[in-house]
Amino acid sequence: MSHSAPHQESSDSMSQSATSSRHVSPAQIPPVRSPRPSQSAGPSTTRLPSLTQLIPWNPAPPLVPAASIGHTFPMQGSHPDQTFQRYPPVQISRLPAVAPARSELASPPQALPIPLPGKLQVPGTRRGPVIPQRRYQPLTASDRRRYVEEVDLQSSILFNSLDGEGFPLKDALNHRYGALEAREEPMFVQHGPSISLRLNWPGYQPWTRQIPTRDFRNPPGPITRDKLTKNVAKSVQRFIEEQKSREIEPAEEQWRVGEGYIELEDLLLLRLDNVSKGSWQIQLQLLTPLENKQRRLDAPLPAIRPAQSGPAPPPRQLSWKHVGPGSSSMRHGGPPL
Question: What is the mean pLDDT of the segment spanning 208-216?
Answer without folding.
Answer: 92
